[in-house]
Specification:
alpha+beta, five-stranded antiparallel sheet, two-stranded antiparallel sheet, 4 helices, globular, disordered N terminus
Length: 144
């Protein structure tokens, strides 16, 4: 089973017992590792603290963020400043509840690219527990 994404950004590839809709905690499926390896879309990964820990080459190419410059940074570096509070609140709510309502759904948002420009994007988020800690991934494409 290959994790893929439609142009709209919805991540698929998990089985029935591995929901991506955020209404139930995900099992340790290693979906994020498969997504990084197999997706042709830009993918970025963060740990439970919101620190960027991995990305694929397509993310580097499309968004202009070299791996050496972004790994170890807070996810907020990708979020326009006026949305930092909302981003932090949503991230915290997920960590407390262990679920979210926006996972697996295409979202029209803005991101900051490697040159510091604000760019409209289609983003789809997923989460999974790995060794007892949440990890998060997003496919992120510039909006058409």
């Amino acid at each position: 089973m290959n994790p893929t994404s439609s142009r709209a950004g919805a991540i698929s590839g998990a089985g029935e017992d591995e929901p991506l809709n955020g209404h139930a905690p995900l099992t340790e499926t290693r979906l994020i590792e498969r997504l990084l390896r197999e997706s042709s879309l830009p993918v970025i990964v963060a740990d439970h603290l919101g620190i960027i820990c991995d990305l694929n080459g397509e993310f580097e190419r499309v968004w202009g963020w070299p791996r050496a410059r972004i790994v170890g940074e807070a996810l907020a570096v990708l979020v326009p400043s006026e949305f930092h509070n909302a981003h932090h609140a949503g991230f915290s709510r997920f960590l407390v509840a262990g679920r979210g309502t926006i996972l697996g759904q295409p979202l029209g948002l803005h991101m900051i690219d490697g040159a510091g420009r604000r760019v409209a994007a289609e983003i789809c988020l997923c989460a999974e527990k790995v060794s007892g800690e949440w990890r998060f991934a997003a496919t992120a494409e510039p909006a058409p």
